Structures are given as structure tokens and as C-alpha cells.
Amino acid sequence: VPQPSQPLLNKDILRGITGSKEVRYCREDAAAYADRWWKDGNPEFEVFEVDCTNYVSQCLFAGGAPINYTGKRETGWWYKGYNGAQEWWSFSWAVSDSLQRYLSAGRSSGLRAETVERADQLMLGDIIQYDWDGNGHYQHSTIVTAFDAAGQPLVNARTVSSRHRFWDYRDSYAWTDRTAYRFFHINDYL
Known about the structure:
The chain is α+β, with helices and mostly antiparallel strands. The protein has a single domain (11-186), classed as endopeptidase fold (from Nostoc punctiforme) (Alpha-Beta Complex), CATH 3.90.1720. The chain contains 5 helices and 8 strands; from the N terminus they run H-H-H-E-E-H-H-E-E-E-E-E-E. The protein has helices spanning 11-16, 27-37, 52-62, 91-94, 96-104; strands at residues 79-83, 86-89, 113-116, 127-131, 140-147, 153-157, 162-166, 180-186. The strands form 2 sheets. A 6-stranded antiparallel beta sheet has the order 3-8-4-5-6-7. A two-stranded antiparallel sheet has the order 1-2.
């Protein structure tokens, strides 16, 4: 019986740790990864039928967000791929609403974020999530990769691949007049 692979670890980050538990989130690296892989998925990861949150999680990881491996799909934030037909990743890695709950939870270290009120308060590498019907269940995730001349975020996404798209998604077939947004500013130190 093949053993499951080890969780992916960002070795560049691990080499930089000398007794410090905190890692600086590199917003530029997260955005560069987002611009590199927005159209065709990175072959080191599965490409899901609904791929937006898997893609955003990869971008966060590329920016230095440390894996929180628990071995339980309902907890942590982690990715290991497949072991045979078994899916080895946390729901927060791959499911929009689960990532929203993970980022909303208070924790003292690791991947964490604060909710801000407006899109123009976000920075490169921050996350916007979308609740299309306003029922409190978030169905889409994007990452801020640029800004327009007015300082409004432009985002990248997958599932329907988008690069430097205006953040409000009013041009999307999924948008409704009940759409609610969650704006997450990723902590500078994780």
C-alpha cells in the first residue's frame, strides 16, 4: 500500500527561519504566482472542476503562507495531493466558504487575515470572496494582483480564468443584486 506523500512545504521560507515563528507574507510573490498560473494550472497541483480556492491557496502559499497540516480535512490549511483515489487536502485549501471561515477565525500565528470594510483598503496579495446570493455562504475566491487608476483592486481567479479583472464582478453571470463580498487583508507576518 503506497504511503501518502509528505505535505508540500515552502523550503525557501523554512531556510529563512532562525528561531522566529513568524514569516513575512511576500505580497509580490503571491501576485507574481497568480499572474503566472491564472490561465493554466500549475502541474504540481491538482486542477479542480471548481478551482478558484485551490488557485488562491496556491497563491497564498507562494507568498509564504505556512501550511497548517492537521491530517484532517475539516481543520487546518494544507495540501498533499492524492493518495490513490483519496483526496489529501483540507477543505479550507479548496472550498471558498471553508477558506472564508479559516481566514475569519482568530489565531496567533500562521495564515491569518483581518476583514476590512472596503475593497480600496486591500493590498496586493489580499483576498476577496463572493457570496453570489447573499445567504452567508461564499462561493468564489479571488486574489488582488493589481490596481486600476482609481486605486481599486483588480483580481485574478480560476474556474473561469480571469486576469486583472475589476474586483466587483458585476460583469459575471454569477453576480446578482444580492451579492455580498468579504475583503480579507492578509497579515504581513504569518
